[in-house]
Design a protein that fits this description.
This protein is of the alpha+beta class. The chain has a single domain, classed as CNF1/YfiH-like putative cysteine hydrolases. The strands form three sheets. A six-stranded mixed β-sheet has the order 2-3-6-5-7-11. It has a three-stranded antiparallel β-sheet with strand order 1-12-4, with no helix packed on it. The protein has a three-stranded antiparallel β-sheet with strand order 8-10-9, with no helix packed on it. The protein is globular, with a radius of gyration of 17 Å. The protein binds zinc ion. Zinc ion binds next to loops.
Length: about 240
Protein backbone atom coordinates (compact mmCIF):
# COMPACT_ATOMS: atom_id res chain seq x y z
CA UNK A 1 0.00 0.00 0.00
CA UNK A 2 1.31 3.44 -0.86
CA UNK A 3 1.31 6.28 1.62
CA UNK A 4 -1.62 8.63 1.39
CA UNK A 5 -0.67 11.66 -0.63
CA UNK A 6 -4.09 13.01 -1.44
CA UNK A 7 -4.52 14.85 -4.70
CA UNK A 8 -5.68 17.62 -2.42
CA UNK A 9 -2.11 18.51 -1.55
CA UNK A 10 -1.00 18.48 -5.16
CA UNK A 11 -3.89 20.73 -6.13
CA UNK A 12 -3.08 23.25 -3.44
CA UNK A 13 0.66 23.47 -3.15
CA UNK A 14 3.09 24.14 -5.99
CA UNK A 15 5.59 21.48 -6.96
CA UNK A 16 8.36 22.92 -4.76
CA UNK A 17 6.32 21.92 -1.70
CA UNK A 18 5.74 18.32 -0.65
CA UNK A 19 3.02 17.38 1.82
CA UNK A 20 2.20 13.84 2.96
CA UNK A 21 -0.21 12.11 5.30
CA UNK A 22 0.93 8.55 5.98
CA UNK A 23 -1.52 5.66 5.90
CA UNK A 24 -1.69 2.70 8.30
CA UNK A 25 1.22 0.85 6.69
CA UNK A 26 3.46 2.39 9.32
CA UNK A 27 2.59 3.40 12.87
CA UNK A 28 4.28 6.68 13.84
CA UNK A 29 3.55 6.50 17.54
CA UNK A 30 6.25 8.31 19.56
CA UNK A 31 6.57 6.24 22.75
CA UNK A 32 7.37 8.00 26.03
CA UNK A 33 11.12 8.28 26.35
CA UNK A 34 11.74 7.64 22.62
CA UNK A 35 14.64 9.63 21.22
CA UNK A 36 12.95 10.18 17.85
CA UNK A 37 11.91 7.99 14.96
CA UNK A 38 12.28 4.22 15.37
CA UNK A 39 14.11 1.97 12.89
CA UNK A 40 10.92 0.78 11.10
CA UNK A 41 9.61 4.34 10.96
CA UNK A 42 12.84 5.54 9.35
CA UNK A 43 12.71 2.64 6.88
CA UNK A 44 9.21 3.62 5.83
CA UNK A 45 10.23 7.23 5.25
CA UNK A 46 13.23 6.18 3.19
CA UNK A 47 11.52 3.46 1.16
CA UNK A 48 7.98 4.77 0.67
CA UNK A 49 8.59 8.51 0.58
CA UNK A 50 12.28 8.84 -0.32
CA UNK A 51 12.67 11.11 2.69
CA UNK A 52 15.98 11.25 4.53
CA UNK A 53 15.07 10.56 8.21
CA UNK A 54 17.73 12.88 9.70
CA UNK A 55 15.93 15.78 8.02
CA UNK A 56 12.68 15.05 9.87
CA UNK A 57 12.03 17.18 12.95
CA UNK A 58 10.16 15.60 15.82
CA UNK A 59 8.28 17.28 18.67
CA UNK A 60 6.50 15.88 21.73
CA UNK A 61 2.91 17.05 21.22
CA UNK A 62 1.28 18.27 24.42
CA UNK A 63 -2.01 19.88 23.26
CA UNK A 64 -0.65 23.36 23.91
CA UNK A 65 -0.03 26.36 21.66
CA UNK A 66 3.76 26.55 21.51
CA UNK A 67 5.20 26.94 18.01
CA UNK A 68 8.78 25.86 17.23
CA UNK A 69 10.81 27.86 14.74
CA UNK A 70 13.21 25.40 13.10
CA UNK A 71 16.47 26.79 11.78
CA UNK A 72 19.23 25.20 9.72
CA UNK A 73 21.36 24.58 12.82
CA UNK A 74 18.68 22.80 14.86
CA UNK A 75 19.19 19.11 15.44
CA UNK A 76 16.13 17.10 14.44
CA UNK A 77 16.67 13.84 16.32
CA UNK A 78 18.07 13.80 19.81
CA UNK A 79 17.08 12.72 23.29
CA UNK A 80 15.63 16.13 24.20
CA UNK A 81 12.58 16.26 21.97
CA UNK A 82 10.97 19.68 22.45
CA UNK A 83 7.39 19.95 23.66
CA UNK A 84 5.26 21.87 21.18
CA UNK A 85 2.29 21.49 18.82
CA UNK A 86 3.38 23.32 15.70
CA UNK A 87 6.57 23.88 13.70
CA UNK A 88 7.54 26.47 11.13
CA UNK A 89 10.60 26.96 8.95
CA UNK A 90 11.86 28.82 5.90
CA UNK A 91 14.80 26.47 5.38
CA UNK A 92 14.56 24.31 2.24
CA UNK A 93 15.04 20.60 2.89
CA UNK A 94 13.90 20.61 6.51
CA UNK A 95 10.98 18.20 6.98
CA UNK A 96 8.32 19.23 9.51
CA UNK A 97 6.26 16.45 11.10
CA UNK A 98 3.10 16.04 13.16
CA UNK A 99 1.52 12.86 14.60
CA UNK A 100 -2.25 12.42 14.71
CA UNK A 101 -5.00 9.86 15.27
CA UNK A 102 -8.15 12.03 14.97
CA UNK A 103 -6.64 15.44 15.68
CA UNK A 104 -6.43 17.82 12.73
CA UNK A 105 -3.13 18.31 10.87
CA UNK A 106 -2.96 21.77 9.29
CA UNK A 107 -0.44 22.44 6.51
CA UNK A 108 0.55 26.06 5.80
CA UNK A 109 2.61 27.55 2.99
CA UNK A 110 3.32 31.12 2.03
CA UNK A 111 4.59 31.23 -1.57
CA UNK A 112 5.69 34.88 -1.23
CA UNK A 113 7.79 34.77 1.93
CA UNK A 114 8.66 31.09 1.21
CA UNK A 115 7.92 29.54 4.58
CA UNK A 116 5.94 26.53 5.77
CA UNK A 117 4.14 25.49 8.95
CA UNK A 118 2.62 22.26 10.24
CA UNK A 119 0.13 22.23 13.10
CA UNK A 120 -1.30 19.59 15.44
CA UNK A 121 -4.80 20.82 16.28
CA UNK A 122 -6.89 18.77 18.68
CA UNK A 123 -9.67 20.39 20.65
CA UNK A 124 -7.38 21.55 23.47
CA UNK A 125 -4.82 23.12 21.14
CA UNK A 126 -7.66 24.59 19.08
CA UNK A 127 -9.16 26.11 22.24
CA UNK A 128 -5.72 27.72 22.76
CA UNK A 129 -5.80 28.88 19.10
CA UNK A 130 -2.71 26.96 18.01
CA UNK A 131 -3.35 27.62 14.31
CA UNK A 132 -3.75 31.38 14.88
CA UNK A 133 -0.57 31.32 16.93
CA UNK A 134 1.27 29.59 14.07
CA UNK A 135 0.13 32.21 11.55
CA UNK A 136 1.36 34.91 13.96
CA UNK A 137 4.76 33.23 14.23
CA UNK A 138 5.01 32.96 10.42
CA UNK A 139 4.27 36.71 10.17
CA UNK A 140 6.60 37.72 12.98
CA UNK A 141 9.50 35.50 11.94
CA UNK A 142 9.32 35.44 8.14
CA UNK A 143 7.21 38.54 7.38
CA UNK A 144 4.49 36.34 5.99
CA UNK A 145 1.28 38.14 5.05
CA UNK A 146 -1.68 35.91 6.06
CA UNK A 147 -3.54 36.81 2.87
CA UNK A 148 -0.83 34.97 0.91
CA UNK A 149 -0.97 31.78 3.01
CA UNK A 150 -2.30 28.56 1.49
CA UNK A 151 -3.74 26.16 4.10
CA UNK A 152 -4.72 22.49 3.86
CA UNK A 153 -6.48 20.28 6.40
CA UNK A 154 -5.58 16.59 6.43
CA UNK A 155 -7.95 13.82 7.53
CA UNK A 156 -9.29 14.18 11.09
CA UNK A 157 -12.28 13.40 13.26
CA UNK A 158 -15.19 15.42 11.89
CA UNK A 159 -18.62 16.59 12.90
CA UNK A 160 -20.17 13.22 11.94
CA UNK A 161 -18.28 11.44 14.75
CA UNK A 162 -17.02 14.02 17.24
CA UNK A 163 -19.55 13.72 20.07
CA UNK A 164 -18.81 16.17 22.87
CA UNK A 165 -20.42 17.41 26.09
CA UNK A 166 -22.70 20.45 26.01
CA UNK A 167 -20.02 22.51 27.75
CA UNK A 168 -18.05 22.54 24.49
CA UNK A 169 -20.56 25.01 23.07
CA UNK A 170 -19.17 27.62 25.49
CA UNK A 171 -15.59 27.08 24.30
CA UNK A 172 -16.54 26.81 20.62
CA UNK A 173 -19.65 28.95 20.07
CA UNK A 174 -21.24 28.32 16.68
CA UNK A 175 -18.96 25.35 16.07
CA UNK A 176 -20.83 22.67 18.04
CA UNK A 177 -23.97 21.22 16.45
CA UNK A 178 -26.86 19.07 17.59
CA UNK A 179 -26.95 15.67 15.89
CA UNK A 180 -29.82 13.46 17.00
CA UNK A 181 -29.50 13.48 20.80
CA UNK A 182 -25.88 14.52 21.05
CA UNK A 183 -23.69 17.52 20.47
CA UNK A 184 -20.88 17.28 17.92
CA UNK A 185 -17.84 19.49 17.46
CA UNK A 186 -16.76 20.54 13.97
CA UNK A 187 -12.98 20.71 14.51
CA UNK A 188 -12.10 21.68 10.92
CA UNK A 189 -14.62 24.55 11.15
CA UNK A 190 -12.98 25.77 14.38
CA UNK A 191 -9.63 25.94 12.62
CA UNK A 192 -11.08 27.43 9.45
CA UNK A 193 -12.65 30.23 11.51
CA UNK A 194 -9.36 30.87 13.29
CA UNK A 195 -7.51 31.07 9.97
CA UNK A 196 -10.13 33.48 8.59
CA UNK A 197 -9.81 35.64 11.72
CA UNK A 198 -6.04 35.62 11.23
CA UNK A 199 -6.43 37.04 7.72
CA UNK A 200 -6.14 33.86 5.64
CA UNK A 201 -8.48 33.99 2.66
CA UNK A 202 -11.41 31.57 2.54
CA UNK A 203 -10.53 30.52 -1.01
CA UNK A 204 -7.02 29.59 0.17
CA UNK A 205 -8.23 27.02 2.72
CA UNK A 206 -8.64 23.44 1.46
CA UNK A 207 -10.01 20.41 3.27
CA UNK A 208 -9.47 16.71 2.70
CA UNK A 209 -13.01 16.18 3.96
CA UNK A 210 -12.12 12.75 5.29
CA UNK A 211 -13.15 11.56 8.75
CA UNK A 212 -10.63 9.30 10.49
CA UNK A 213 -13.31 7.63 12.61
CA UNK A 214 -15.92 6.52 10.07
CA UNK A 215 -13.70 6.13 7.00
CA UNK A 216 -11.83 2.85 6.70
CA UNK A 217 -8.06 2.90 6.51
CA UNK A 218 -7.28 5.47 9.18
CA UNK A 219 -6.01 5.31 12.73
CA UNK A 220 -8.60 6.66 15.14
CA UNK A 221 -8.13 7.15 18.85
CA UNK A 222 -11.84 7.67 19.38
CA UNK A 223 -12.63 4.37 17.67
CA UNK A 224 -9.68 2.20 18.79
CA UNK A 225 -8.55 3.92 22.01
CA UNK A 226 -5.11 2.82 23.21
CA UNK A 227 -4.75 0.40 20.27
CA UNK A 228 -4.76 3.26 17.77
CA UNK A 229 -1.53 3.96 15.90
CA UNK A 230 -0.50 7.40 14.70
CA UNK A 231 -0.43 8.95 11.23
CA UNK A 232 2.53 11.10 10.32
CA UNK A 233 1.99 14.33 8.45
CA UNK A 234 5.08 15.69 6.73
CA UNK A 235 5.81 18.95 4.98
CA UNK A 236 8.92 20.23 3.25
CA UNK A 237 9.93 22.59 0.47
CA UNK A 238 12.86 22.76 -1.89
ZN1 LIG B 1 -17.12 10.39 10.87
Amino acid sequence: MLPVNPDLFKKIFPTNVSAFFSDTTADFTLPLGAAGLSGPQKDFLRNALSINPPKVYTMRQVHGNRVLVIGAKDIPQNSNIPEADAMVTNVPGIVLSVRTADCLPVFLYDPHSKCIGLVHAGWKGSALKIVSETVKVLSRTFESDPKDILAAFGPSIRECCYEVGEEFAKTFPGEVFQRKNTMCLNLPLVNRNQLLNSGVKDENIFESGECTVCTKGFYSFRRDQEKAGRHLSLMTMV
